[in-house]
From TrEMBL:
PANTHER family: TRANSPORTER (PTHR42948:SF1)
Name this protein carries in UniProt: Neurotransmitter:Na+ symporter, NSS family
Domain of life: Bacteria
Keyword hit for Iron: no
Length: 474
């Protein structure tokens, strides 16, 4: 079977594709803003520690499972778990979760594409109007943008692993790095740029508390594509000779570096617009930052470089975010695609057709839940708040299930598949791994405190989100 499975043509292709998955909208805006609000350098330090000591072992475990089984996540749990029904359930969740996350991420990517198109058409001034975003997301033009994004994603995925995913990543990722560097270079020349950099980098440990720590870990976990079945799926497309340990490190470093560098773009821009900005007052939501706050800042650049110049910078910014979003979207749609074609033995084309239809219906429902249709807008209520259909998808799948899926990976790998098998798989392509300190740390952490932390986060999120209970004080 596995001889027929398509593989990445090189280790670099795999790393770029996995990093492309990890680098997304959250890295570019969400991360810098939450770092600045929550202690600057102190947050950066804690985040780096979480990535290295908690996320990296989980990442390696996911990759090892996928490469060993040479299957989609459902197949991986099935094969490595000897068909055990309860683990098949974990496998099912590892496929259903990305399917639902694809829906919410699609909605946001469509808006990005809309803003990108509008800046290209010279309409930056209207994007900067305070009421514009609300009107935009409720206009029927979003469906046209949706059609375009669905087309792009499908064109990439139809190409398969080498000609689709890998080729796209090899073009989009370097382009993303270059655009990011160009924007950072420009923004750092603005007046008061350094005030932003200071807030971002100077540590303020007094801001640290349980809720900030929880937020930092959740952000790291989400950002690295963990718990989404993506790394398992991508790793099922690498060869038995490749070094997983080294690749996982590269993916984690690239993702964190892009997030860090993005702060050198976003914060200086905010502080040059208004040197008296109170970081605490910045919005927590990437959505309101990107679509409401930043267009205003980008338009203000016209005092410096004229309307055309400001539009060019805005275009570059939205293109950067769009590239980041597309590689993430591709990776997440690939998971159910792989499952459908592996499980049902159908072609990629057919699998993509089915998924486009299924995600399409749900994406349309989400899109209509911002005011277009009342029953979707006030879909339900919990934790004392009214929730739209979009909110439910986001709360359940992104906020709640991801740490649970991560927990399943740890428990499965350690107690069902077993440590020795994990070590064996990780040693292939990385001969120094066996017997190393890293091996001991990975086995110890994955079987003890990492699952405990993930379980605590999961229980706490369920309690606070859905029942309004504060169990652990964060
Ligand atoms: N890092 C992404 C972001 O910042 C999050 C993410 C990782 C993601 N993998 C993904 C989002 C897959 C969507 C699909 O937005």
């Amino acid at each position: 079977m596995s001889e027929n499975r398509e593989h990445f043509s090189s280790r670099l292709g795999f790393i770029l594709a996995a990093a492309g998955s990890a680098v997304g909208i959250g890295n570019l805006v969400g991360f810098p803003v939450s770092a600045t609000k929550n202690g600057g350098g102190a947050f950066l330090l804690v985040y780096a520690l979480f990535v290295a000591f908690i996320c990296l072992p989980v990442m390696m475990a996911e990759m090892a499972m996928g490469r060993k089984a040479q299957k989609d996540p459902l197949g991986s749990y099935k094969i490595l778990g000897n068909n055990d029904t309860k683990w098949k359930l974990a496998g099912f969740l590892a496929v259903f979760t990305p399917f639902m996350i694809a829906v919410f991420y699609m909605v946001i990517t469509v808006w990005i594409f809309g803003y990108l198109t509008q800046t290209a058409l010279g309409n930056l001034d209207s994007l900067a109007n305070p009421g514009h975003f609300g009107l935009f997301i409720n206009s029927y033009t979003v469906f046209a943008y949706m059609a375009a994004v669905v087309l792009v994603v499908n064109l990439i995925l139809l190409g398969g692993v080498k000609q689709g995913i890998e080729k796209a990543a090899k073009f989009l990722m370097p382009a993303l790095f270059v655009m990011l560097i160009v924007l950072v270079g420009y923004v750092l020349t603005l007046d008061n740029a350094m005030a932003g950099v200071k807030y971002y980098i100077i540590p303020d440990f007094s801001k640290m508390n349980a809720s900030v720590l929880n937020g930092a870990l959740a952000q790291a976990f989400f950002s690295l594509s963990l718990g989404m079945g993506i790394l398992m799926t991508y790793a099922s497309y690498i060869s038995k000779k490749d070094d997983i340990v080294g690749s996982a490190k590269m993916v984690a470093i690239t993702d964190s570096l892009v997030a860090f560098v993005a702060g050198l773009m976003v914060l200086p821009a905010i502080f040059s617009f208004d040197p008296n900005t109170d970081p605490a007052a910045l919005s927590d939501s990437s959505v309101s930052m990107i679509f409401v706050y930043l267009p205003k800042i980008l338009l203000a650049l016209q005092h410096d470089i004229g309307y055309f110049g400001a539009s060019a910078v805005a275009f570059l910014f939205f293109l950067l975010v769009f590239f980041a979003a597309i590689t993430s979207l591709v990776s997440i749609v690939e998971v159910p695609t792989a499952t459908l074609s592996d499980r049902k033995g159908i072609s990629r084309k057919k699998a993509l057709g089915i998924l486009t239809l299924a995600t399409g219906v749900l994406t349309v429902l989400c899109t209509m839940s911002f005011g277009m249709v009342d029953s979707l807008t006030s879909f339900t209520g919990y934790g004392g708040q009214s929730k739209s259909f979009f909110d439910v998808v986001y709360d359940v799948f992104y906020d709640t299930i991801l740490p649970f899926n991560g927990l399943m990976v740890c428990l499965f790998v350690m107690y069902r598949w077993k440590k020795a098998n994990l070590s064996k798989e990780l040693s292939i392509g990385s001969p120094n791994y066996a017997g190393s300190f890293m091996e001991k740390y990975v086995n110890f952490s994955l079987s003890t405190f990492i699952p405990i932390i993930l379980a605590t986060i999961f229980i706490n999120t369920v309690a606070t989100k859905f029942f309004g209970l504060k169990l652990f004080g964060f």
